[in-house]
Structures are given as structure tokens and as C-alpha cells.
UniProtKB/TrEMBL annotation:
Subunit structure: Heterotetramer of 2 alpha/BCKDHA and 2 beta chains/BCKDHB that forms the branched-chain alpha-keto acid decarboxylase (E1) component of the BCKD complex. The branched-chain alpha-ketoacid dehydrogenase is a large complex composed of three major building blocks E1, E2 and E3. It is organized around E2, a 24-meric cubic core composed of DBT, to which are associated 6 to 12 copies of E1, and approximately 6 copies of the dehydrogenase E3, a DLD dimer.
GO biological process, one term: response to nutrient
This enzyme's EC code(s): 1.2.4.4
Primary residence: mitochondrion
Keywords, alphabetical: Mitochondrion, Oxidoreductase, Transit peptide
Transport keyword on record: no
Name of the protein described by the UniProt record: 2-oxoisovalerate dehydrogenase subunit beta, mitochondrial
Domain of life per record: Eukaryota
Source organism (scientific name): Myripristis murdjan
Reactions mediated catalytically: N(6)-[(R)-lipoyl]-L-lysyl-[protein] + 3-methyl-2-oxobutanoate + H(+) = N(6)-[(R)-S(8)-2-methylpropanoyldihydrolipoyl]-L-lysyl-[protein] + CO2
SUPFAM superfamilies: Thiamin diphosphate-binding fold (THDP-binding), TK C-terminal domain-like
Length: 363
């Protein structure tokens, strides 16, 4: 009897663990791209590796550096690159984010292509001064005599199911307040490779946030050769007539499910837009959609107060006020540190977004 009770308790604990760590979305792969040549099945971290491999092969000045990148990094995004290109081009740094970005600025100013990795986006804050006061302003302060536009900073981003307060943050809004840098977040492997290569080629310092929960969960057919996707251009993934659903990164897949629920349960037609670039963002595509639908729901994992949804909401209100049929709705994280055991309650899941759609339709 005691053994039986132990097994029951263990089964219950396993079920709780399974539920707590289960993804709050279903990844929906994009159609196979045909215009960039042969494709290969890759998950998101493999598509990042492929982009870095293409860059190192084509640009002899390119270097990749960060904590533990030499052996592949925590998420294996640089695996095999040191062996292929040498320890002078792919190398570890001390555990010092300020130093990583400061070094990257110097490398970029000297004319090389610098690709810095911050091990988690949560740990980018020690480098905040270097990014905001140095990298973003280098060109401006020198009257365009010098710049560090060859700097790209990569960082795993967003909630992962069990990351808690130090491994699940989404800090894009902090950097959206800073002219002089670009901030990009992909939704899947195809976008990750194309947008990362665009960031590396762009002549402005870029921050590239990679949704860590998608590293292995997202699998698509990705072009093997190098290709780029345009920055500062949102993508309309699904056309609709009643509500515009706007998100980026992981939350795009939540919105896709919400759009299906709204159509099935309410007969509501939703237009789904992936913003992709946070700064500078594509106001034209978003406002054009809101003029058509009259309603806008914005969703992100970061806390609601001061989140980037607030900037979008303000701009759309200014541009589309007479076209709005209901107040703009924000479904975001709460104004608390990211919790651990209460993570399922914190995440802006499809049910919260679905309720927001019902409120807007019935307004």
C-alpha cells in the first residue's frame, strides 16, 4: 500500500511537471520558401548556426564571441564553428556583458564584422550603457566619421516554460527608446536566418533577440545558402476584416491559434501581423490593417506598463482614431517579475487574447 501511494504521488508530480512545462502554443511552420535555393530541415537554433556559418565563410573579418560560444553555447547555436573557422574567429569571453559589447564596439569601429552573444537576454542589462551610450550614438557623436554599424548582438529571449525571473524576460521595450540601434525578433527558423543575416549586413548596430522556447520546438525547411529578409517590414500572415492581431516572436503562434478560435467560435475574421522589427517598426502596414478592420489587439510577454504595445497603441490611436470601432486592447505580461510556479497564469495565452477579442467585438 505504501509503495502504491508513492507511485500515485510520483505520477501526480510528473503530471504537474508536464502541465507546467507544456508549451502554451502550437508552432505553425511557414510554407517552404522556394526562391532562395535548396532547403534543409532545421530547427531555430540550427538556422542561426547556418546563418553564422554563411557569414564566417563569406566575410573573412567576421568574428563571433561571447560566454561559452567556443564549445557551442548554452543553446548550441555556435556548435562546430570554432573547429571549422578557428579559435581566432570564434572564441569565449570572460563573464562580463559590458566587456563583451564594449569589445564588439571596438572590433566594429576597426572595420571588422562583430557578432556578440549575450548568453540570456536577461543578462544584457550590464551592457546597457555600452549599447545605449556608445554603440547607438557612435555615428552621431562623430558626425559620421566613425561608426560601429558592423556590430550585431544576439541574445536568447522570452519565456521558456521554466525560466522564472532571470531567464524568461523580454527586454525589447528598453531598447526601443534608443535611436541609433535596430531591434529584431523572429518567429521561426526561416525568419531567424534571413533576419539575422540582414542584421549582420546592416550598417547600424542591431540587437537580435531569439525566442529560446522555439530553439528546438520550431522546425521548418530553411534555405541552405545565404539570404536576407527586409528589416523594419511587418508581415501579414493572415488577412482578415474584423480584428487586427499584432505580435512578434513566440506570441505570433499564440495569435494564429486565437485567429482560428475567433473564426470558429465567433465567426470573427482576424488579420494576423508579425511585426518582426521592433525598432524602427513598420507603422504603415499596421495602420493600413487597422483602418480596414477597425480593431487592434497587441500581445507580448513583457509587462504591460511601458511595454512596446503602448508605443504601438499610441501611434495607431493618433493615425487611425476615426477608423477605430473599439478601444485598442493590450494583452501582455503582468507588472511583476516573471514568476516560476505561476508562469501559466502570467503568460498572455490564447484564452486571454480570445476574451479580449470578444470584448472588442461586443463594444
Amino acid at each position: 500500500l505504501i509503495v502504491w501511494h508513492k507511485w500515485v504521488r510520483l505520477a501526480e508530480e510528473n503530471e504537474c511537471q508536464r502541465r507546467r512545462h507544456a508549451a502554451h502554443f502550437t508552432f505553425q511552420p511557414d510554407p517552404v520558401p522556394t526562391k532562395y535555393g535548396p532547403t534543409q530541415k532545421m530547427n531555430l537554433f540550427q538556422s542561426v548556426t547556418s546563418a553564422l556559418d554563411n557569414t564566417l565563410a563569406s566575410d573573412p573579418t567576421a568574428v563571433i564571441f561571447g560566454e561559452d560560444v567556443a564549445f557551442g553555447g548554452v543553446f548550441r547555436c555556435t556548435v562546430g564553428l570554432r573547429d571549422k573557422y578557428g579559435k581566432d574567429r570564434v572564441f569565449n569571453t570572460p563573464l562580463c556583458e559590458q566587456g563583451i559589447v564594449g569589445f564588439g564596439i571596438g572590433v566594429a569601429v576597426a572595420g571588422a564584422t562583430a557578432i556578440a552573444e549575450i548568453q540570456f537576454a536577461d543578462y544584457i542589462y550590464p551592457a546597457f550603457d555600452q549599447i545605449v551610450n556608445e554603440a547607438a550614438k557612435y555615428r552621431y557623436r562623430s558626425g559620421n566619421l566613425f561608426d560601429c554599424g558592423n556590430l550585431t548582438i544576439r541574445a536568447p529571449w522570452g519565456c521558456v516554460g521554466h525560466g522564472s525571473l532571470y531567464h524568461s524576460q523580454s527586454p525589447e521595450a528598453f531598447f526601443a527608446h534608443c535611436p541609433g540601434i535596430k531591434v529584431v525578433i523572429p518567429r521561426g527558423p526561416v525568419q531567424a536566418k534571413g533576419l539575422l543575416l540582414s542584421c549582420i549586413a546592416d550598417k547600424n548596430p542591431c540587437i537580435f533577440f531569439e525566442p529560446k522556447i522555439l530553439y528546438r520546438a520550431a522546425v521548418e525547411q530553411v534555405p541552405v545558402e545565404s539570404y536576407t529578409l527586409p528589416l523594419s517590414q511587418a508581415e501579414v500572415l493572415q488577412e482578415g476584416s474584423d480584428v487586427t492581431l499584432l505580435a512578434w516572436g513566440t506570441q505570433i503562434h499564440v495569435m494564429r491559434e486565437v485567429a482560428d478560435m475567433a473564426q470558429e467560435k465567433l465567426g470573427v475574421s482576424c488579420e494576423v501581423i508579425d511585426l518582426q522589427t521592433i525598432l524602427p517598426w513598420d507603422t504603415e502596414t499596421v495602420c493600413k490593417s487597422v483602418v480596414k478592420t477597425g480593431r487592434l489587439l497587441i500581445s507580448h510577454e513583457a509587462p504591460v506598463t511601458g511595454g512596446f504595445a503602448a508605443e504601438i497603441s499610441s501611434t495607431v490611436q493618433e493615425e487611425c482614431f476615426l477608423n477605430l470601432e473599439a478601444p485598442i486592447s493590450r494583452v501582455c505580461g503582468y507588472d511583476t517579475p516573471f514568476p516560476h510556479v505561476f508562469e501559466p497564469f502570467y503568460i498572455p495565452d490564447k484564452w486571454k487574447c480570445f476574451e479580449a477579442i470578444k470584448r472588442m467585438i461586443n463594444y
